[in-house]
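Friendly challenge for the regulars: who can give me the structure tokens for this chain first? No prize, just bragging rights.
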Amino acid sequence: DAAKPFFDPTTGGGFVRAQAGTMAALTDALRRRLGRTQLPATALSAPDWAASRNNPLGLAAFVEQYAKAVRAATPAERARHMAGALVAAGALVHILADMGSPSHVRSDTRAHLDKLGDGADDLGSRFERVAARAYGRLGVPPAARVVTRDTLRGFFTATPAAGGAATADAPLGLADLTAASYFSAYTLPGPFAAAHGAGSARLARPAPVVPARLSVMSANVPEGVALRDARGVCLARYTAVRADVTFSLDDECMLEQITAILPEVVAYATGLLDYLMRGNLVVSIVEGGKVQAAGATGPVELLAEDGRGVRTALAAGAAIPAGTVRVLALSVGVDGRGEPLVAVGDAPVK
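First reply, four minutes later:
Bragging rights claimed.
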């Protein structure tokens, strides 16, 4: 659902159709003519949608499919369920990756309704179109690090869910980082009179910070001057026309941002995949041919696998059946933070 991957960490909210203004109504009419679904009035925020049991490709679906990929009897069944688990994991990564797009985390739904081409329905985010054109699906730069978090929500934000207690030392999620570091198309600083200085510019939110003094004299050119952050990344361009200074985002500036953002997105996404697959059981065969599993956070299921790859349930304390080449243990539970956890382990039968 295109409306789901929005999350503003300053409000805790997700997609709000009203913020898109009259363009949303125009787009709805266009979608109806094309037989498509209307934009919803509101939608769950990205972290809430990722964790929602109503999400067919959310965390609950991943847990269910991953457990079945271990438990199912035949290799073909297990492969089918593992494919389902990987699709759910990919969908979760997609939701998180959208937190690297400034409009997704700054309540800027209008930016996703820009006209991008000659086609009547060629609407969307220019920022994301530039990213797609520059990097495609396979050219995304690798992560220089892997971000680790203890909770699914922690990858998105340090802001607790409704009713949760905030902590001052909570590490930033990807949404927090992006929202505070970059402008989006319709959350740029407002125009200001050069005589009054940049401090008079209207800001949609306090970050990124606009310096109080800008080089207005050098901005009196059509291409304007780049406003850069401490790393030298272009945040916007400002142009002085007569007595007014205005801000804009062009493709070149957006590409600089995308080049800086994508490694962070990959760092968080890699960490999320590690988080999903973090469960591990230590399986051993003890005296008497009994199977033990250590490290479980929930009920343990034991399985025996024969030479054909067929798995059967093994009762606790039962002898290992003849013909078994491997024993496995599966635990579906929650970790110390109440986060869903699938833990798996195996041991060969000699």
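The radius of gyration is 25 Å. The CA atoms of residues 11 and 107 lie 9 Å apart. Your move, everyone else.
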